[in-house]
């Protein structure tokens, strides 16, 4: 399988970048996007050239580290799939693949394809916790959660924080990410006493670093965790609820 790759090369956050063209004549359809980059880097190392920098960790679609853009689509052509699980059978022999980092003002490039996504971490730091007494774990039935709420909370908690939603949004919004966290936490009994405070702080941080929701739903289309679009609504719903309450609950 022959592919022409245009891979983004950038020495650091304060330097200009450019696309570097690489010809690959021996790619196989079962390769993932990251394995393709591994293959290119191996050839670069053998030739004494500097390999491309890209982020990765589990390579199982769980950690959310491997964010990059292929032909303008976060992660790649396959819908709701991380880059590490995107296979080349989504492309044809002779195709050109333009591989670049997630594009967002909130995600400055560290080097080549690796970006700094700590803006998402800062949203979580503002309210992604619950106040509990330290000590041994409580019995499983100490706090009752009905089956429906537990399953729904797990659906929203599946967000891996990869940032694809931000990269897909023309406004660079992170409402799908933030809404998923707000909905996950509001459904569980732990943290109920700080629900309003959590919403205010997380939404304030969201609006400090990210753009406004575009209302088109590009985020849900690329989300590898399949977070539903209704998570976006939780941002305004939780903010409005918090504005009607003077205290933390």
Automatic annotation (TrEMBL):
Keyword Repressor appears in the UniProt entry: no
Question: GO: which molecular function terms?
Answer: 2 iron, 2 sulfur cluster binding; 3 iron, 4 sulfur cluster binding; 4 iron, 4 sulfur cluster binding; electron transfer activity; metal ion binding; succinate dehydrogenase (quinone) activity
Q: Which GO terms describe its biological process?
A: respiratory electron transport chain; tricarboxylic acid cycle
InterPro entries per the record?
Answer: 2Fe-2S_ferredoxin-like_sf, 2Fe2S_fd_BS, 4Fe4S_Fe-S-bd, 4Fe4S_Fe_S_CS, Beta-grasp_dom_sf, Helical_ferredxn, SDH/FRD_Iron-Sulfur, Succ_DH/fum_Rdtase_Fe-S
Q: Which Pfam families match?
A: Fer2_3 (PF13085), Fer4_7 (PF12838)
Q: Mind listing the UniProt keywords for this protein, alphabetically?
A: 2Fe-2S, 3Fe-4S, 4Fe-4S, Iron, Iron-sulfur, Metal-binding, Oxidoreductase, Tricarboxylic acid cycle
User: What SUPFAM superfamilies does its record include?
Assistant: 2Fe-2S ferredoxin-like, alpha-helical ferredoxin
Q: Which Gene3D superfamilies match?
A: 3.10.20.30, Alpha-helical ferredoxin (1.10.1060.10)
From which domain of life does this come?
Bacteria
Q: What cofactor does this chain's UniProt record say it requires?
A: [2Fe-2S] cluster; [4Fe-4S] cluster; [3Fe-4S] cluster
Q: What is its EC number?
A: 1.3.5.1
Q: Where is the 4Fe-4S ferredoxin-type domain positioned along the sequence?
A: 150-179
**Matching PROSITE patterns:** 2FE2S_FER_1 (PS00197), 4FE4S_FER_1 (PS00198), 4FE4S_FER_2 (PS51379)
The family line of this record is:
Belongs to the succinate dehydrogenase/fumarate reductase iron-sulfur protein family.
Q: What is this protein called?
A: succinate dehydrogenase
Q: What organism is recorded for this protein?
A: Corynebacterium glaucum
Its lineage opens with:
Bacteria, Bacillati, Actinomycetota, Actinomycetes, Mycobacteriales
Q: Which gene encodes it?
A: frdB
